[in-house]
Every structure is written in structure tokens, then in C-alpha cells.
Amino acid sequence: MNMLNVEALHVAYGGIRAIKGISFSVKRGELVSLLGANGAGKTTTLKALTALHPRLSGRISFQNSPIDGLGTWDLAKRGLVMVPEGRGSFTRMTIFEDLQMGAYLRDDKDVDNDIEKVFALFPRLKERRKQLAGTMSGGEQQMLAMGRALMAKPQLLLLDEPSMGLSPMMVDTIFEVIRNIHQEGMTILLVEQNAARALQVADRAYVIESGEIIMQGAASMMLNDPRVRAAYLGE
């Protein structure tokens, strides 16, 4: 069953068409990667899905319901949650307080238990739970941004360039967590310039170029496709 369906999506910035009628889907339990060069339209697509940028036309349904007219707040409450490019921590809050903010829309009693689950995924956050978020390294802030999104109990987690600007060791850590939460059942749409790492963890992938999807298929197949290897894997 598809959790997300996108049909004929068009998005523009002023008079410039950034997204030109793309269609794709994400099934429940899948990890789908959206690949492409810088400026291809990947982040714009995520912003359109989460109502952070208006769309010109197209149909988007989430869990079999159209999401026309819903704001970012409403979508997050329904379980469509994004970790944006650039992380966006609450810099004057502690790590613990930042994680609590991720649960702002929740009214259940499992928040403390879920914070402990985040700490289990990211032990460094537990070690520094009283540290101000703004004093952390880029990699630590990426951990925090992902942890905060998980605190919202997403049904579909959107990750926008989670490895950008990180050291190789931190990239390994982030992708290990992505792999683990996916294996535990999390549905994920991953936007990532590091095509090799994205295809290693994904079930399926779409390649977007100049606002259009030019290729799609099983991640394992695309990892070995000469066109993908030449264009995105540097071979």
C-alpha cells in the first residue's frame, strides 16, 4: 500500500519552473531515495510535500487522503515530518529541551520513553543532554535534528541532505541510524547528493534532473547501472 502518492507535481519560483510534472510514490515501510545534482529540484519537492512552498498544480495524497490546503503544522500532526537541510536546531535550548520540542504536538505519555530511545540511537546526545544546541558541531546538530523529528512519531520521515557538510565518520553514523530505523519499520523518503550511500540503504530510487524524473527503479539495480555510476558515482 502506498503511503505517499505524488502525481503530476509542478512547482515554480517566480517565473521559473523548478518541478515539471513529476510523479512518484512511497510504499509503507519503504526507504525511497530521490537523487540528483545540486539544483535538480530535490529540496523543492520536499518543500512542496510539506507545504513549505506552494505548488502550481498536481495531486499529493498521504495515507490515502489528499493533503490540499493543509499547512505544515497539520501535516506534521498527521505524521508527515521532515528533517530540513541545514538542521535548524533551537540554538538557545538544551539538547533535552530541543527533543521535547519535537513532541510538541503529542498528547500521549510516552514522550520520556521516546527520548530515551533517541538517546539509544545517538549516545552522544545523552552525554550532552544539558548542552545548548547552538554550541554543538554540525554532525551533532544533525543527530539532534533527526532525533527531534523522531520525537514527532512520524509515519513518513523526510530527510533532506542528512550527510551534507559532515565528516566521513559522522556520515557513517548518520547512515547507520537511517538503516536501523528503516529496518525497524520506519517509512523514509531520502533526498541525498551522496548517491552511493543513498542507494546502499534504499529499496527504490528516483533520479531527478532539471525538475523531471529521468530514471527510477530498484536501488540495487541503479547502483549497478552504468548511467547512474557515470553521472552520480564518479565512475
Question: Notable features of this structure?
Answer:
10 helices, 235 residues, four-stranded antiparallel beta sheet, alpha/beta, globular
Structural notes for this entry:
The chain has ten helices and ten strands. Helices cover 37% and strands 27% of the residues. With 235 residues, it is an alpha/beta fold. α3 (95-102) runs parallel beside α6 (138-151) and α4 (111-121) runs antiparallel to α6 (138-151). The longest helix is centred in the last third of the chain and has 16 residues, at 168-183. A six-stranded mixed beta sheet has the order 6-7-8-3-9-10, with helices on both faces. Strands 2-1-4-5 form a four-stranded antiparallel beta sheet, with helices on one face.
